[in-house]
Amino acid sequence: MVAPTPIIARARTDLHDRLVEADEPLAGFHLRSGGELPGPLVTPALIELVRKARVYKLRLARAIRAQDESEQITAWVEVEPEGEGASIAIADWQAEALNPPTQSETSHARLALVRHVAGLGARLGPSQELLTVESEAEDLSDLVARMQEGIGKPWTDFIAPAGKTHRKPLHWRMLDGASVEIAGSERRWNVALVPLGKPQPGSAGFELYLVPQQAAQEAPPKTPTDAKRSNGIGRDIAPVLRQPVSRIIANAETIRTQLAGPLADEYSNYAADIASAGEHLLALIDDLTTLELVEDDRFVTAPDKIDLADVAQRAVGILGVRAGERGVSLDAPKSADSVPAIGEFRRVLQVLLNLVGNAIRHSPQGGHVWIRTEHDGKRARITVADQGDGLDEAEQAKVFNKFERLGRSGDGGSGLGLYISKRLAEAMDGALTVESDKGKGARFTLELPSFEERRKQPR
Question: What CA–CA distance (Å, rounded) separates 93 from 71?
Fold first, then answer.
């Protein structure tokens, strides 16, 4: 019979999961990790174990892994409810010094962050001449237009680093990190130059990035042009919100993927949760922006000839990974199918992504989602059907209402997707309807004018 592993340290927590007393080595690790004694637990794996034991009144035991700034530890932890708190017993404590990240790892992490937050990216040749340039920053649009017209010229013809007045492009090391001001932008920017090619850095050209020194919200927001726009999130304010949220997501993803060095699984998982929450917030910003757009009396779409079967296949391609993660199969129209219709492609795709995304979310594990198309010469239709719980008559009557979530909570949804989708359908001279029976899934149908019918109408 194998003897039990001896307990080397004991600790105790209170009702609020505060560490009230602890033996070494747990006490020292807790303090080095930024905690106080007595004070709240700061090790994620231990917090989770203690909280579960206290809430569910269970004795729990498992191996945990954690790290502070100098070492990584593994230990066998046994937690047992005691009074209003819990008692902790530690066995088999193993500590290993962390190796500092190499210069290569540090450079890789820095480059990953630069690429995430850059407002402009360009590819340069070996003489720092412009080859390509792209940017989504509104306050750099004039600069991008000038640079695109000047492909082949040195990038410094368009961006003047502070204090660098030499006519020829300076050595890239003198320009990397330089501060610049851009006409039309109220923000200041830093230059990041990444040399390409070996053994001589820069022999294969460079990557050029402009990194903002401050978030976009520090620039004064524009004044809304009318009272109606000032009541919503505002097309001027949405970019202000997107940038800091995008930065949170980018940094969380950098932590999650351990680009800055090895990390305990618990911290990596928390970073994944932060990134997921950020993506939900970004989706909410987009929903509120679109909401304001579709409720504007001046909103119109740009109708064109589209193929509903093709749009459906694209939506399935985009959402295929999400469906696979939930064990849901997607049955899309075949490539040979063709259902011509009149609508704005990106708006129809937006509606279908919402419908198929909802169907995936509400389908059971191992369920199926069907997407079917049809037309009768006058109207073209596409239906998304799922095997979820379905909707009763009362729920069907309000499913398209603004902010209606039908009792859902905690899934990150805004309750705006179907409302916006219906408004978009109507703006394209179409309709969005639902058919459902409780317990038998739901079928949402987007209807648009057929191409043949629109072609017959007098001009």
Answer: 12
Say which DSSP state 216 is in.
G
Task: Compute CA distances 156 → 117, 167, 437, whole Å.
Answer: 21, 9, 65
| Pair of tokens at residue 165 | 């007045």
Extended strands (E) in 269-391: 304-307, 329-331, 340-343, 368-375, 379-385
99's tokens: 């190796």
Which residues, 6+ apart, have CB-to-CB distance to 258 below 8 Å?
A: 268
- Name the token pair of 202: 């820069």
Provide the residue-wise pLDDT of the chain in tens; the chain has 459 residues: 445 568 889 999 998 888 999 999 998 888 887 788 888 888 888 888 898 888 888 888 888 888 776 778 888 899 999 988 999 999 888 888 766 555 555 566 567 667 777 889 888 888 888 888 888 788 898 999 899 888 889 998 898 775 555 455 567 878 888 888 888 888 888 898 888 887 788 888 888 999 887 654 444 444 444 434 444 555 556 666 766 777 777 777 777 766 555 666 666 777 777 777 777 677 777 777 777 777 877 788 888 889 999 999 888 888 888 888 889 999 988 767 789 999 988 889 889 989 998 999 889 999 999 999 998 878 999 999 999 888 988 888 888 988 776 644 444 456 788 988 999 999 999 999 999 988 889 999 999 998 765 444 544
Contact 340, 380 (CB under 8 A): yes
Question: CA angle, corner 101, sides to 272 and 112, nearest 5?
Answer: 50
Rg (alpha carbons) of the chain, rounded to whole number: 28
pTM: 0.47
Sign (positive/negative) of CA torsion 229, 234, 235, 237? positive
Alpha-carbon span 449 to 375, nearest angstrom: 9
- Pick the closest to residue 210 from 232, 231, 184, 179 (CA basis): 179
* Residue 364 neighbours by CB under 8 Å, 6+ apart: 387, 388
- Give the dihedral sign, CA 284/287/293/294: negative
By the 8 A CB rule, do 124 and 207 touch? Answer: yes
Listed residue (113, 127, 139) closest to 209, CA to CA: 113
Neighbours of 111 (CB within 10 A): 15
- Contact 343/359 with Cβ under 8 angstroms? no
Give the type of residue at 387.
Answer: Q
CB of 56 closer than 8 Å to CB of 64? no
- Using the structure block, give the residue that is written with the tokens 């719980």: 389
Pairing of strands 368-375, 329-331: parallel
